[in-house]
Amino acid sequence: MHPILFQFPHWTLYTYGLCVAIAAAVSFALAMNRSAWFGFSREKASDLVFTVFVSGVIGARFLYVALAWDEFRVRPIRMLYFQEGGLIWYGGFVAAVLGGWIFSRLSRMKPLAVLDFFAPLIPLAHAIGRLGCFFNGCCYGKPSSSRWAVLFPGDTVPRLPVQLHEAVFLVVLSFFLFKVRLRNPADGRIFFLYLFFYGMGRFVIEFWRGDQNYCAGATIPQWMSLPLIVLGLAGFLWARTKRSL
User: Fold this and answer.
1) CA distance linking residue 19 with residue 52, whole number of Å
2) The whole model's pTM is what?
3) Can you tell me the distance from the alpha carbon of 66 to that of 37, in angstroms, rounded to the nearest whole number?
4) 64: which of 41, 86, 105, 213 fits an S-S bond (Cβ 3.0–4.6 Å)?
5) Band of residue 243 on the pLDDT scale cut at 50, 70, 90
């Protein structure tokens, strides 16, 4: 693994931070390219992407710090060291959706159209972030003797590279959602499809994670995935019968 790409006397380039930056750049470029398709001006789309990305990063970091407060209690300034890793997707997702929803309301944009606008971009950016997790050595899998297992630095046993497994799943999901968009479905259907399939995929992948604690027979992310699955399915069926909001 390579958690640090370059290190200079007063500056360090972390692989995880670089992947987050690449994810942001790719999302921004694709959003600008697709803005006209959704009837958004490039200026409004740019502001929307910025709002959603910043909200997501802050939310993801906030949840991580809240759940690992003992790591930051002695030196709280480390809460700002985003480049070292430590982002929880669920916190980022909730904050990003909330930020996008508020922005759409203030800008007189259709909230469901905004959610559809971002739906294919979220898993693609998430996949790039998972590559950062792999190089950072976090979010690792269970010990394994398979030939695909990887020995992470500081570990004593090979583990499943579930970060790469999830990255592949997310890329496939992203392309699927892009393809669904070509059919011009009703507002909300793409986003709800994302919720359903990501919730299902994350629930399954968690069985191979090796860094999670179990609560009542399941990991915390698995419990969090269940509402996504239910909401995604219910929302998709609702969007099929309702007019755009």
Assistant:
1) 17
2) 0.87
3) 39
4) 86
5) low
List the one residue out of 45, 53, 6, 61 whose CA is nearest residue 25.
53
Inter-residue contact 30 to 121 (CB < 8 Å):
yes
**Tokens at 10, concatenated:** 């007063």
Rounded to 10 deg, the angle between the 162-181 and 121-136 helix axes is 170
- The tally of domains found in the chain comes to 1
Q: Which domain holds residue 235?
A: 4-241
Residue in this structure with the two tokens 């995929």, named with its chain if needed: 201
Helix axes 15-34, 111-118, angle to 10 degrees: 130
> How many residues appear in the chain?
245
At residue 185 the predicted structure's pLDDT band, cuts being 50, 70 and 90, is low
Tokens linked to 119: 């739906």
Are the CB atoms for 26 and 125 separated by under 8 Å? yes
Going from the C-alpha of 100 to that of each of 11, 51, 86, 117, 219, the distances in angstroms are 33, 7, 23, 10, 28
